[in-house]
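ok here's Glycosyl transferase family protein:
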Amino acid sequence: PAPDWLDDIAEPIVLVTTSSVGQADRALVAAAMRAFEDAPVHVVASLPADGDGLLRRDRRVTLTRFVPHSPVLDRAVCVVTHGGMGVTQKALSRGIPVCAVPFGRDQFEVARRIEVARCGVRLPARRLSAQRLQAAVRSAMTMSAGAAEVAAGFAATGGMRRGADIVEAHTVSV
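and the structure:
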């Protein structure tokens, strides 16, 4: 279900997410809060799900420990992420451009593929600043056509139901 406070947000939403696996990506949330403090958007930022709870809510920022992505993505104009595969696919399946700031693991490759597909941009974590993040998000938001193309590609595969059918077809009955 959508959080109660979501209906109170009138501005376009920029969703900012961090990894659920420990890494030093909380700087991403801090940079986003500074980058968009005077912009005509509302930042919804979620920290690792180490407990529920709204941490901050004001005119331009909602900071929470957990938020279900789907209802927020339904209103998002861009997603800022560490480049995790889950939230990246959720955003792109809806045609929402992505700004990926990779910190480790497979995130570098996910960010590279976002850039190659022209469905968003990559900002190296070592270059992260509020000013650079704001510029990267503005650039990503011009790539909605690329994000829509990726969404169409996802839809053409048949989605989760088709994936489950393929797995079941190749699974030996016990």
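+1. Helices lie at 26-35, 69-73, 85-93, 107-116, 130-140, 144-156, 159-169.
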